[in-house]
Amino acid sequence: MLQNNKKGKEVIPGFKNWKVRLDESVDTEQRIARVITVNKTNYNILIDGREVLAEASGKLIYSSEGETDLPVAGDFVVADVFDDLAIIHDVLPRFSFLKRKSAGKKVEFQSIAANIDYGFIVQAIDTDFNIRRLERYLAMIYEADIIPVIILTKTDLISEEEKEEKISLIEKNYNELKIFTVCNIDKNGIDEIINILEEDKTYCFLGSSGVGKSTLINNLTGNENLATREVRSSDKKGKHTTTRRELILLNNGSILIDTPGMRELANISIDDGLDETFYEISELIKECKFSDCNHTSDSGCALLNAVDKGIVSRERYDSFIKLKKESEHYESTYYEKKKKDKKFTKMCKTIMKEKSNKR
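and the corresponding structure tokens:
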């Protein structure tokens, strides 16, 4: 879904920023496009100043090792247009890439969006507010080398005192983060967010279902671009409406990406993300007596000592250990599965080669 830029230029939103971030030069013969929407079997891309339906080439599909190698919303791709259908031949390097563990029991990476400058973590400040969930989002965003920003919605549902109390809970460990509070009904706080949006920069909205992401984006764009539903009177929660990732271009040249609400958020391989999310813990464990300290029972553990002294809260420690163990478990399971898949593929190729030689 694309909103026209007032400047009327046939440019690829965010491409100049992409070249600066990666210090990349592109073959002038290549036709570059940006992925706007990912559908089940195809894509919508922006190329030559217009939106076109596209499919991935057979070579791109069969050379990919998994979903993360295929185009995702925000990607810059090499494509050719034939009448009203484009063929995507290659995905250009990404300066950032948001991904998580697939929902359910399947241990695979699920792509979210690419080439993101800022990740807006949206939480409803009433019943949805959850520090532990916020830490999960931060770990994912930091791992992707993206700058996090926190937006708290539905401020009309709590008192000013409650609002300040919850903001203080965040600032206790993340006083460097920008925090915005908004009310989508009277649009209080919307202008403050609009004022930080920069031309050519890409902003991705992340959060649970029903926190008001789509309504927030509609308020930021000034248009009813995204479908929304009324909140339930029983619990004041909105119903999930976004079912796919979409790129939206604002009149000031900034780019927004809406994402479906995440009912489940698990991460794979988030070492750097954990270090930044729990920065004070990361510094403490450098002082542990043993380099392979498990931080749960080993003697000489600087982290456990800090918890005992009240320097690190028990809740924050528990959250760190839980995320670390979860990430390590999924990482081990994922790479073990990849190893088995490669072994199976190699065996199949050997069998096929032997059959061919016997003919």
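(Above: one complete record from the training split.) Residues 5 and 188 are 25 Å apart (CA to CA).
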